[in-house]
Please model this.
Amino acid sequence: MVRVVVADDEPLITAGIRTVLESADDIEVVATVADGGAAVAEAVRHRPDVVLLDITMPVLDGLGALGELRRQAPDVRAVMLTSFGTESNVLQALQDGAAGFVLKHCAPDELIRAVRAAHNGDAYLSAEVTRLVLGMVTPVAGRRQQAAARLAVLSPRESEIAALVAEGLSNADIGRRVHMSEPTIKTYVSRLLTKLNCANRVEVALLVRDAR
Model:
């Protein structure tokens, strides 16, 4: 079982998240809390696999709680959850070691995928967050050759998948585009991360962008 702590100060949102997660037979919500300080305390107490952290909470916000988790429970993976996804929050969360970043209006199955990905040691960012990050970054002159050289190790099919990742498409959307199953695309993306030495799909997208 993937053991999860949910931290959100809106009771209705918390109840909805719990219902969605526990609809999956491999996920158990071990605690729900309404502020970042309590999230850290419950993470230390329960040692869950994943903590879902809302960005805006009283006492200690999600970013503050993320920093405390890195210090007090470094083995716990944190997925950030927000209703707005502002640029500064996305960058700060990624820099502070968040294992995922999803928006509150995401589909239920995407939330489940994010939790599972975090538990498996992968980074999960929704397609919208990927596009947001790409929109923030201005390519730096001189990186094109280096990026192109790194991408040269990819097969034609891997290059095609990388280009679709750079469009901010989800695995399901990529699968529909190239007529492959979602699990097959997931395998391709994992291979891309390994071959390109990238931590997550956003880094792959940035690399493709630099090479253009």
